[in-house]
Specification:
19% strand; two-stranded antiparallel sheet; eight-stranded parallel sheet; 10 strands; Arginase, Chain A; alpha/beta; 290 residues
């Protein structure tokens, strides 16, 4: 892999020496409301130069770690099957080379491709899922591969253990009924997150960490396709990310930034800082455990 010409700030080491790899999946063909998340990965790279590599929240710097930015996969639009295969193949290559994949979406369906690769590699993998939406529909308008169905499709994979959902505040009634018997759903915020992390740490369960940025309140993050009032604050999200990083996180993603829907650029700036804090939290905790 060659480094992206427009790499996320500070993520410019070579692939061979990298411990983590960022790659983008600019896909939004199943978006159910307002499109535009296909532009999220490139916008985050460009706007990342408006933030620092150093995090005062964690006293860590991106340059303390070896991170490679592979750029975006060139995905076809329309049917999602081929893009999901390409995302899965890329994640498999990264994992197979002993590196941690960090996926930037795109709509949330892209998570399914990465989860397929991770669960095949690690066996029973739990998912920690931050989102405004349950994403547990069996289908959306007759289509089973939709961003509204992504966690339902993940839950059906043999390699996925339990899905732990937080900040959920929207969905069809049937999704909440499904969650009662199949997922660990925590509505509206991060209640029970510490207990969940403690249990996963004790069992050393491999964890896939998926962040739909619309878990943030619309006052903080309006630049998303399906905004939902009543979300968490930016600082609440950062604290939760640091807590999840105490688990054995083997892969992660952030999804659903639609930069053109927030012309102020504030949503893109927030997404850049979320990615920085995610990278520093996961990689920093892995270094401390070694």
């Amino acid at each position: 892999m060659e480094i992206s010409r427009n790499a996320f700030i500070g993520c410019d080491c070579g692939y061979e020496e990298a411990e983590a790899v960022i790659f983008g999946a600019p896909f939004d063909s199943t978006t159910s409301f307002r499109p535009g998340t296909r532009f999220g990965p490139s916008a985050m790279r460009t706007e990342s130069f408006g933030i620092e590599t150093y995090s005062p929240y964690q006293d860590k710097d991106i340059t303390d770690f070896r991170i490679f930015d592979a750029g975006d996969i060139e995905l076809p639009f329309g049917s999602p099957e081929k893009p999901l295969e390409m995302i899965e193949s890329t994640a498999k290559e990264i994992i197979g080379d002993g590196k941690i994949p960090f996926l930037i979406g795109g709509e949330h369906l892209v998570t399914l491709g990465a989860v397929r690769a991770v669960s095949e590699k690690y066996g029973k993998t739990d998912i920690i899922h931050f989102d405004a939406h349950a994403d547990l529909r069996d289908d959306y308008l007759g289509v089973k591969l939709s961003h509204a169905c992504v966690m339902r499709r993940c839950d059906e994979l043999d390699g996925v253990g339990k899905i732990h959902q937080f900040c959920i505040r929207s969905g069809d009634r049937s999704e909440f009924v499904y969650a009662e018997g199949n997922t660990d759903m925590n509505k509206f915020g991060f209640d029970n997150l510490s207990e969940t992390v403690s249990l996963l740490r004790e069992k050393n369960v491999p964890v896939y960490f998926s962040i739909d940025l619309d878990c943030l309140d619309t006052s903080v993050f309006p630049g998303t396709g399906t905004p939902e009032a009543g979300g968490v604050s930016f600082c609440e999200l950062l604290s939760a990310i640091k807590k999840v990083a105490e688990c054995n996180v083997v892969a992660a993603d952030i999804c659903e930034l639609a930069p053109m829907l927030d012309p102020t650029g504030a949503s893109t700036a927030a997404a850049c800082k979320v990615l920085r804090e995610l990278l520093l939290s996961v990689l920093g905790n892995k270094k401390e455990r070694v």
